[in-house]
Amino acid sequence: MHTTRSEMGRTQDVHCCRGPCLTPDYREINRRAWAELADHGYPSTRPYGPHHLSRARELLDPQEWISWDTVKSVLCLGAGGGQQVPLLASLGYRVTAVDLSPEQLERDWAVAEKLGLEVELIEGDMADLSALHGREFDLVYQAISACYLPDVRQLYGEITRVLRPGGHYRVEHANPVSLQLSDPNGWDGNGYRLVRPQGAEQPVAWTLPGGPNSPPCWHYIHPLDDLIGGLGDAGFVLLHFAERKAADPSAEPGTYGHLASYVPPFLTLVAQLGHPG
Ligand SMILES: C[S@@+](CC[C@H](N)C(=O)[O-])C[C@H]1O[C@@H](n2cnc3c(N)ncnc32)[C@H](O)[C@@H]1O
Question: How far is CA 55 from the centre of its chain?
Fold first, then answer.
């Protein structure tokens, strides 16, 4: 078996840059949530098969923004589930992955083992990468997951400590406006209602498929000041930015495609860490 696993962060206190946290530990809440999502076969927890592996580069980088010829080592963040991690390893890159959820890492492990791929899997909170400080990855590849962290600027700071100067950071973010909605299916006949202010520090709790008795999943609304502006402040240069288009103007009001005509669901960014001096 070529897969290694270690664990970090499980028992540490939550450190929020904006002051002491008054809420329970977001990591415990969301670790339980992802166990529940995995149990229900939520799409983000369904491992990729041969059909996906044959289209690895296209799935990982549909816009062809990443300079793959400069990449040998990749750190995946919040990308568990047997999807991006084995795709990257199948292309011959040295892959390390940090994810909060043992169930999600289990899926990466299972696909890697089946294909005889070598991956390093670390269970932990990506807001604390101290176990990796001193390593210099060529690429940090983050799947949609910053919305599960209270402080995205803390995350960006951590990434600068594990990326080599000139290295690239590719990330998809959930559009924060989606989290301000009263209900993503909530077309009221005229529009969708924004009911949560930007910059609210309290998490938005999502009820999971198991219903109100199942654990919630906590999401945080990060203003663009932090999501995009925070990159420059951390020392990155933004190279590419796009909204992921999913609009279907002919879709029924209150559906995913219809809402996407108003609020593109995801933002994709590629940034480069500035050279020192
Ligand atoms: C929406 S999934 C993204 C990955 C999935 N392969 C996909 O493409 O949909 C979010 C992932 O972020 C992970 N996650 C949530 N909070 C995290 C944290 N604080 N640190 C690291 N990973 C986290 C979850 O366990 C989950 O695997």
Answer: 21
Q: What's the 269 CA to ligand 1 centre distance in angstroms? A: 17
In angstroms, rounded to a whole number, what is the distance separating the alpha carbons of residues 170 and 239? 10
Domains of the chain are 4-273 (3.40.50.150)
Phi-psi domain of 211 (left: phi exceeds 0; alpha: psi -120 through 50; beta: other): left
Over residues 129-144, the pLDDT tens digits come to 999 999 999 999 999 9
Identity of the residue numbered 247: A
Radius of gyration of the chain from Cα atoms? 18
Give, using CA atoms, the residue closest to atom 1 of ligand 1.
Answer: 144
How confident is the model over 26-84, as pLDDT tens digits? 999 999 999 999 999 999 999 999 999 999 999 999 999 999 999 999 999 999 999 99
Residue 258 — φ and ψ, nearest 5°? -70, -50
Half-sphere CA count of 127, side-chain side, radius 13 A: 20
Beta-bridged to residue 171, according to DSSP, are 142, 269
**Ligand 1 within 6 A of 33 CB?**
no
102-115 and 26-39 are packed helices; what angle lies between their axes, rounded to 10 degrees? 50
Q: How far is the CA of 47 from the centre of ligand 1 (A)?
A: 13
- Going by alpha carbons, the residue nearest to atom 13 of ligand 1 is 78
Rounded to a whole number of angstroms, the distance between the first and last alpha carbons of the chain is 43
Instruction: Give the 3-state secondary structure of 180-244.
Output: HECCCCCECCCCECECCCCCCCCCEEECCCCCCCCCCEEECCCCHHHHCHHHHHHCEEEEEEEEE
The whole model's pTM is what?
0.91
Which phi and psi angles does 232 have, rounded to 5°?
-60, -40
